[in-house]
Amino acid sequence: SDDYKEAMSRGLSSKLIVLCEDSDLDNIYEHLSTNLDGEAMVIRGGFFVEVLRSDVCKGNGLKKMCDVLGVALDDCISFGDGDNDIEFVQNSGYGVAMSNARDTVKAVADEITEHDNNEDGVIRTLQKLEENGKLHFSCP
Q1: For a designed S-S bond to 101, which of 25, 105, 111, 140 qualifies (C-beta 3.0 to 4.6 A apart)?
Q2: HSE-up of 121 (CA within 13 Å, CB side)?
Q3: Which helix (H) or strand (E) holds 26?
């Protein structure tokens, strides 16, 4: 719905994205990080700043999905390139940073791909893991 009052009656949103000019990105990130310290998670993207409720992240989503599906986190592989992927990469059994990932993601990854997401880095890495016997599929 485009009705602001109706949307707000459903409660606070879990995410806010602030689109920025490159020249403003660092200042906006610093301002929001400083002023929302502890109240929300502020993540710097390539052309945006993302503000999330402190309980919202891809890592928590992965945990919930695994619980629902009955899959162990240790059996999951995740791929990431941005700061919003850090918990996702950390929480999975095997976390992979794309070659063009931010340094913060590379620092927590188990592996850094040779290729980025525009060069089919995910499928190439999965194929390499399968060829090396490190990727197993179990079917009921």
Answers
A1: 105
A2: 18
A3: helix 22-35
pTM for this model (two decimals): 0.74
The predicted-structure confidence for 40-65, as pLDDT tens digits, reads as follows 888 888 789 988 887 788 888 899 99
The β-bridge relationship of strands 40-44 and 48-53 is: antiparallel
- Hey, how many other C-beta atoms are within 10 angstroms of the C-beta on 64? 10
Q: Which residue has the tokens 């200042």?
A: 27
Sign of the dihedral through C-alpha 117, 49, 88, 99: positive
C-alpha of 97 from chain center: 10
> Would you place residue 139 in the very low, low, confident or very high pLDDT band (cuts 50, 70, 90)?
low
